[in-house]
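WP5 quarterly update. Target: Dihydrofolate reductase family protein. Source organism: Kineococcus glutinatus. Length: 199 aa.
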Amino acid sequence: MGKVIASITTSVDGYVTGPDDGPGRGLGRGGERLHHWVMGGPWTYEGGHGFAVHGPDREFYDGLVATVAAGVVGRGMYDAAGAWGGTNPFPGPLFVLTHRTADQPAAETGFRFVADLDEAFARATEAAGGGDVSVGGGADVIRQALAAGRVDELAISTAPVVLGAGKRLFDGFDRDVDLEVVEVHSSPYATHVRYRVVR
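Structure tokens (predicted):
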């Protein structure tokens, strides 16, 4: 059976988005700096961007997704990302946790809407067929998964920026969790740490 790996990028002060995140500005005002490592350098919402990860960032990313066969994200991330243009860009099917399942897109998009955290993980685990299941944003979905004891590994990429406002990764989280450092990668754009969640 595979692992459940939660991954997300934060600022040094713990924000996963800047303020006013949403469709067309998925990482909020100033939040695009969080993903310089993904885009291979500075980018803007207006100027367009592409996936150009390289160097130590690529080494981290490739290792992270090498065994992933399905994923779970929240509806907020799905909407803020503009449904990734209508096609799931990640390995395997992506299960979107949402209370609004009636607008389920066509199966060929690679997205599956589910209303319950347990159902999302059960279906993702089955779809992964022994591979790993990734848990992406938003922060709330990662907090729920951690609180439920479902996460085996937590990967946090910390961008060298202080946002001062937005959405925090661990806002309101009150569970005591021990972590063990598994590996670290660092570049000018981020420090990536993979932690094993100690039960």
